[in-house]
Amino acid sequence: MGDTQTLWQFFVMNSDKLFQQTLQHIGLTFISLFISILIGLPLGILISKYKKFSKPVLGIAGILQTIPSIALLGFMIPLLGIGPKPAIVALLLYALLPIIRNTFTGINGVSEEVTEAAKGLGMTNMQILIRVELPLAMPVIFAGIRTATVINVGVATLAAYIAAGGLGEFIFGGIALNNTHMILAGAIPAALLAILFDFLLGRIQLIQFKKIRVIHFLLLLAILSSSFYILPNASAGKLRAGFTPEFIGRADGYPGLRKKYGLDINNVVISDAVMYKATQEKQLDVISGYSTDGRLKAYDLITLTDDKNVFPPYYAAPVIRNEVLLKYPELENVLNLLAGHISDSIMTDLNYKADYLHEDPEKIAHDFLLANGLWRDPRNGKKGTIRIGSKIFGEQYILSDMYAMLIKGYTDLDVATKTGLGGTQIVFGALVNDEIDMYPEYSGTGLLVILQPQTKIIDSLILSKDKVFDFVSKNFNERYNLKWLQPIGFNNTYGL
Amino acid sequence: MISVNHISKSFGKNIAVKDISFNIKEGENFILLGTSGCGKTTTLKMINRLIVASSGTILIRNKNINDIQPEKLRRDIGYVLQRNSLFPHYTVSENIAVVPRLLKWDKRKTEIKSASLLSKFHLSEQRLSAYPNELSGGEAQRVNLARALIADPSILLMDEPFGALDTITRTAIRKEFSTLEEFRKKTVLMVTHDVQEAFELADRICLMDKGEIMQVGTAKELLFQPANDFVKRFFADMYFQSSLSVTKLKDIWPYIKVCETPEHIRPMLFTADTDLWTVIKEMTENRQDKPFINIQQQTQDKFADLEDIMNAFSHYKNNL
Fold first, then answer.
1. Could you say which of B72, B89, B98 has the minimum Cβ distance to residue A121?
2. Which of B49, B74, B82, B157 to probe by mutation at the A interface, max A CB count within 10 Å?
3. Contact B245, B278 (CB under 8 A)
4. Does the complex come out with an ipTM higher than 0.90?
5. In this complex, is the C-beta atom of B143 within 8 Å of any C-beta atom belonging to chain A?
6. Rounded distance, CA B145 to CA B156, Å?
7. pLDDT per residue over B224-269, tens digit each?
8. Residue B148: which of B179, B117, B176 has the closest Cα?
9. Is the pLDDT of residue B127 over 60?
10. How many CB atoms neighbour CB B183 within 10 A?
11. Other residues' Cβ atoms within 10 Å of the Cβ of residue A429
């Protein structure tokens, strides 16, 4: 993917994928909406008739709505595994509140005189409901369905996190790869879908002709569009692989594996947060993990050897702004204290403590420094403040805590940590914009995500860890005025 | 036709209706009169089981209404509500056809019936496709009446049917309705707080207060033979006008003596069925300075001026 590629070219090149993802997205949205209407409409009618149930039912639906969508998806994995099933359930739970509440409000809003007249003329309760209350409540109910549809189109992007497909695959792949075109390729169609559906439902609502039949028509529409949904795992073979959106798209990820090993495996896109858990639930057999991830140890996973060097070396080292080093030259030696102390297996062990034993990263960092004789009590210096950043996963927390302790112990500087800064782009942006002074980065990431040199250069570098490091170090210095200090020693690359 | 026996109804601690009994004869126009909150609407709604009585029995044609399926009972009773209760999502014709649809009439029959009703209510056929929000208050209430009458129920329940209309429209529709054959033939139970309306439409009036019946009787009985102080006070404000409008020329006929017309005057002509209020109103509006009237009863004629009429009226009242 060159820099010169336009958004349109990306659309054209990936039209197959885009089309498939859009269909999946529509399917996810409508199948969940459809089930949601099937549940929500009767429930809304029920609580409008038996008012004492209205508070608990609306309360529960309201609570479901407040659960962060990604957390709701997370809850679904132990219950329903990964794939479209849990995504649909999560989506339908989200759509439930607006549908139930609007049905309830709509029916309650029908004037009492009208329902009394209906009763007085001799309609049965069912006739009153179908001929009078539902048609009169329809605009309000419809507004609820529209709200639910728009919510679902948005939340359905998150389905990509648990291998359910949809336009989220492009969006999260794009975020992970810092590929704006890819993000837009997911985001624009998703936004258009939301607008389009809202518009179409608005039009359907306007059709006054025989109001009751509108529902039938809608149900038909929902069933039709649900059939669009091609379950992504329908063709699943014996071996199932789960790759992160980043891994799917990166040159050194799945495309590289295909090229060098001729690997062709049934795969689904999934977020790394739930990936390990899915293997534990035996939903997946192969995943794209990180070689120092503590969960490898925790979940009894084996890293395969990469003898053809598809995965570039990812040696971790602190990256720091040159200005800061000039101002406080003593920092360099202090930060290099860690170099050579942490091997792959030590890092895996430290990560295991954080990810699986749930120890506090600060305690892990402290224990490690003590054990290796690097610990010194803080000097509470007031000379200045160094701002340390980290990405949002355990290893980075531990490393930034270690650096913070070292700086406090060995220099008169104070430290402010800004941890959990999302992905590479966010931390790197913060560093360049003088919002943080340093953070731990990986050589491979620096090369492929930030510098993004031409394929030829990558190929020439990728076999040697030193070449990669030198190239990155040199280019960072020239381009961004940033300095890579000595590598810590471990290599956190991809592993299967 | 309708027999209400010792009916009571309470909502929680609040007693709405206390031990009420009355009988309505077939074809009678029976009006429940009272101030708001007196229990008249509650009483009406118990007849078609929109409200279930706490105790007592209601019989329609000697059959306990609790033994009839409520929907079936209601389809046989016309029901007209207080305010505009037309279905806003139905056109006029669909609104009128609600009960026929419930009774599964065929379309042709419904169409013929609605057309004839519409013409009786002076509504043009073009209005059939209009929605209720396009109708004026008077038109809407006419449609409302048509909806209640289309299945030709023998009983008609009306809850302040003209209450939401302005005075002029109300008087017009009331007049129109009271002369309607459908209205005259049916057993009508109507609720109102309007004394004038009650006197105009009722065969008998049931005056209620705080859930209890104060007096049941004709307008004259209520005015001239009040059962208690409440009844007296209730009509006190409009007593003079009311008593004139319930008294007809034929009532005071025996007390009018003049049997010949003075030569120089052309008298105004009235039938003996005309009420005194109307007569006096028209006489005072007459340009002659001493208007004279000619009352005709069958083949006989009598003549009177204003003074004669008032004298005859006081004689009549004293001799009741």
1. B98
2. B74
3. yes
4. no
5. no
6. 10
7. 888 999 999 998 888 888 888 888 888 888 888 776 766 677 778 8
8. B117
9. yes
10. 18
11. 13
